[in-house]
Amino acid sequence: MPIRHSRAKAIAILGTGSDVGKSLVAAGLCRLLHRAGLLVAPFKAQNMSLNSFATPEGGEIGRAQALQAEACSIAPHVDMNPILLKPESDARSQVVVQGKVFATLDARAYFTRGRNSELLRAVQESYDRLAAQYEVIVIEGAGSAAEVNLRDRDLVNWTTVELADARVVLVGDIDRGGVFAQILGTLDLITPEERARVCGIVINKFRGDVTLFADGVRFISKRAGIPVLGVLPYLRDLALDQEDSLDVDARGQVAFAADRINIAVLLVPHMSNFTDFNLLSDEADVVVRYVANPEEAAGADVIVLPGSKTTLSDLAYLREKGFEQRLHDHVQGGRELIGICGGYQMLGRWIADPDAVETGSEGAGFGLLPVTTVLARDKITEQVEAQALQKDVATTLPVRGYLIHMGRTDPAGLRPCFRLLRKRAAIECHGTDTGPEQDCHDGAMGSDGLVWGTYVHGLFDQPEFRRAWLNRLRSRKGLSAVPLADSQRVNQMRSGAMDRWADHLDRHVDLAPVLAWLR
Fold first, then answer.
1. Of 418, 462, 463, which Cα lies nearest the Cα of 442?
2. pLDDT at 439 over 90
3. Candidates 3.40.50.880, 1.10.10.60, 3.100.10.20, 3.60.20.30; correct CATH number of 260-478?
4. CA-to-CA distance for 187 and 386, rounded, in angstroms?
5. How far apart are the C-alpha atoms of 409 and 131, rounded to whole Å?
6. Do the beta carbons of residue 452 and residue 338 sit within 8 Å?
7. pLDDT band per the 50, 70, 90 thresholds, residue 429
8. What is the mean pLDDT of the chain?
9. Does the pLDDT of residue 433 top 90, yes or no?
10. Does pTM surpass 0.70?
11. How deeply is 517 buried, as exposed, middle or buried, from its count of CB atoms within 10 A (0-12, 13-18, 19+)?
């Protein structure tokens, strides 16, 4: 492929494998370059993740690129992640191209066309638009930089590196073991031309006394003929959004406590947007536990059915695991039950799939709300602002989030959960015009307010609504209210996490070769 020259210079963060820390290293570099006064933007040609985000213009991209855009202090845009793969099974994914659903393809069909026609053109077009607007593009790769069996169909690693004429930083993960083989094996498998682009190596997730690895650094540098730019110590309690569900599994099982609000989030095979619960997890008076079987949800004050990419199959999975009786017992015990997006659909009486969005089947939901859902091929992606309408929660409290779902739910005349203050044609609105905005509603709740469902992702991110809701739960449990200031501090800590991570990266990695290239 010919090298395409543009205004922007590019640095690519490639890895020795999946989950080695490419996303966060790229985000930290974005923040450092932004703080240095450069106009910088992130780019990942192809992302596979169920953790997605709605951009201001209503497109869908991977959550990691939204985080990286935040690190650059710019709004996320679909050009930052032109291809997003959302797995629906082990061998099939929904393909989102430049923010909109393109097709649903199995792996063989996708890779057969991966270097052909519209997919590669979308990558080129998106990159060229970004490169014309910014001085530096920080590229994130995917998986391993040495996937030799897919090299002729690759879009996200070396194809993008060549497209951008980028230099490469190779990231390895010492925490998983075998870091010498990871790094040297990767460099051995790539071509001499690709290897010549590698300007440095970063060893990530080191635990313990880093000076004990000094001889390892010397060995790798000498054997590779490429400098090790640094060894990044593992940074605990870093409050930044995860790339994928591996981080959820790593949380382990935390014990419920009598003096806290205990929240059980059901682990479904195709959970999406689990970042909905990150700020709840950071609250000192909250325990969030991800549960894989009904027994683990015992003692929860709240059970949450999270978003799902495959609502009908995940519903069948939960039923097979025995969760249906647990949910009914939970509600009969006077405790709260929430469904978000696909979880909201599962709470209803019936889900139909006439257009074969998933399987083409239909079936009964858990019947805990009298709503019905019809899945549809058009996907609603929209950032929203809303006011809460939940029982005992003031309607003046702000809620900001985003909608990403396929399907329409008939609320069956139930009280809605939120009044949406922004609208697009794709959102069903009810009532009369109230000026520039219509009266649009989202979600539904039972008469006692204990069972409710919503399509709004990110609804717990604002401290005012989150604290009011938690204090309502505390009151029900006989606990005193916690001041709003405590929740505001949680948000402040999270907003400062990117700078904390960038400082950590700057402290432990010598970025001189990267900066020399960018100059």
1. 418
2. no
3. 3.40.50.880
4. 50
5. 41
6. yes
7. low
8. 89
9. no
10. yes
11. middle
CB 138, CB 28: distance < 8 Å: no
State the CATH class of domain 9-239+500-514. alpha beta
**Which stretches of 158-237 are assigned E, i.e. beta strand?**
167-173, 198-206, 228-233
Neighbours of 443 (CB within 10 A): 27
- How far apart CA 505 and CA 493 sit, in angstroms, is 18
Strand 52-54 with 60-62, pairing? antiparallel
Q: What is the C-alpha to C-alpha distance for residues 341 and 277, in angstroms, rounded to an integer?
A: 14
> For residue 117, which of 136, 102, 138 has the smallest C-alpha distance?
102
Please give the single-letter amino acid code of residue 253.
Q
Q: How far apart are CA 50 and CA 84, in angstroms?
A: 9
Alpha carbon distance 313, 331 (integer Å): 23
Region label for 11, one of left (φ > 0), alpha (ψ between -120 and 50) or beta (otherwise):
beta
Catalytic residues: 341, 457
Give the distance from CA 176 to its chain's centroid: 22
**Chain position carrying tokens 């430049």:** 98
Please state, in angstroms and rounded to a whole number, the distance separating the CA atoms of residues 235 and 203: 13
Q: What is the residue extent of each domain of the chain? A: 9-239+500-514, 260-478
Residue 26 exposed, middle or buried by CB count within 10 Å (0-12, 13-18, 19+): buried
**Among 80-89, 184-193, 438-447, the range of highest mean pLDDT:** 184-193
Q: What is the pLDDT of residue 269?
A: 92
Dig out the tokens for 233 from the structure: 């110590």
pLDDT for residue 436 is more than 50: no
Return the pLDDT at 236: 81
Count of helix runs (H) and strand runs (E) in the chain: 17, 27
Looking up tokens 């992130």 gives 42
164: nearest Cα among 8, 40, 30:
8
d(CA 111, CA 150): 8
Lowest mean pLDDT among 235-239, 313-317, 322-326, 359-363: 235-239
Question: Which of 153, 83, 76, 75 minimizes the C-alpha distance to 114?
Answer: 153
CA angle (211, 217, 218) in 5-degree steps: 110
Is it true that 9-239+500-514 and 260-478 share their CATH fold?
A: yes
DSSP per-residue letters across 113-180:
HTTSHHHHHHHHHHHHHHHHH-SEEEEE--SBTT-GGGGGG-SSSHHHHHHHT-EEEEEEESTTS-HH
388 vs 181: CA distance, rounded Å: 53
* CA pair distance 50, 459, nearest whole angstrom: 18
| 3-class DSSP string for 460-502 | CCCHHHHHHHHHHHHHHCCCCCCCHHHHHHHHHHHHCHHHHHH
